Amino acid sequence: MTTTTANPDVATSARERAAELARVRADFPLLTRQVNGHDLVYLDWGATSQKPECVIDAEQDFYLTANAAVHRGAHTLAAEATELFEDARRVVADFVGADDDEIVWTSNATAAINLVAYAMSNATAGRGGVAAQRFALASGDEIVVSELEHHANLVPWQELAARTGAVIRPLPATDEGRLDVGALETVVGERTRLVAVTHASNVTGAVTDVAAVVDRAHAVGALVVLDACQSVPHLGVDLHALDVDFAAFSGHKMLGPTGIGVLYGRRALLEALPPVTTGGSMVEVVTMTEATYLPPPQRFEAGTQMVAQTVGLRAAAQFLSDLGMDAVAAHEQELTAHLLAGIAQVPHVRVLGPTQAVDRLGVVAFEVDGVHPHDVGQVLDAAGVAVRVGHHCAQPIHRRLGVASSTRASVGVATTTAELDVFLDALAGVRAYFGLATS
Questions:
Q1: Ranges for the Aminotransferase class V domain (predicted)?
Q2: Please, what CATH class does the domain formed by 56-321 belong to?
Q3: 393 is annotated as an active-site residue
Q4: Structural class in CATH, domain 8-51+324-433
């Protein structure tokens, strides 16, 4: 970071921030490598984040010192593994403003959302008893899903509708790529049983007015399911304060390992929700004709668990907590403003989503006039810049914004403005590479 001011306090602050960012980057070993003869510029944090050494070490240390199955063994290793497993739950719960018994481990965020959808169809089939009937759907009931959703927060609800006779009602997006809050009153009505929205779009970067969604949904007795995959790594998230009923996020996007996701659910809702995956570790009493189930969260954690991954996720949550999510958000907002301002100076490039760094994250999808996104990505990769190309598992919002796919640059805790400048220089040369006009 640089400063042009003569104010010594500001200059010192800028130097301190630059030194802190250098310390953060030093924790990410992969960021030191080269790609195609260039220093790597990793701008694909929205797809999967790089991992600090503390996360890598935590997983390795578990395998080296405490590897055992959790909850079932009486020996020392099993007890140690169980303590690490449950301590991870406590740390992650605290990180997102939840209670530890409201956190269910899943293999990823997609599995977390599918868990709720299939549990609701089990309730519709009569499983779970009287308490579970609050989740049962009838023909003509409505599931409202925003136009901004990742397919993981859309397709499971389509399948639930197909199994139960419910119908999907779209909640539209604006031309700017934000949720159309004004449509809540007309779309969310008496037949609405569930509203599924993203906290922040993985295409437009727009941050959802969750309070408006929750107020309207709860006013008609509907549940709110929040996709928090993009928000949890980049904003301070307090799920209790947001007042949502369920939320899902993934480890690999928040500096943690792959193979671990989180389902948050209000305690009372998890207690009433019937299980989906059944077998070992989630039962109380089993006979040859029936079984009773443990209370949540264990009710939803059948079989051998991803213990090493939870330990790694704990380390990631602690790493972010130590940085301070306010500081993370402030750093990334500066990056977002720099990125948007820079792209605005490149002719023939259109940002999909808000063009100002207000209520939006550093997830910036764009189209280059006359060049396919995959070709854009290859030109950037040749310069050592890693971005995402395609529809980002979000075809409806691309269709709404008039494109089939896009190129996406996304920032993270270790991104620098110098890296963004390398990206912007490479982006400015894309059309010229294909012999197209550059002005």
A1: 41-423
A2: alpha beta
A3: yes
A4: alpha beta
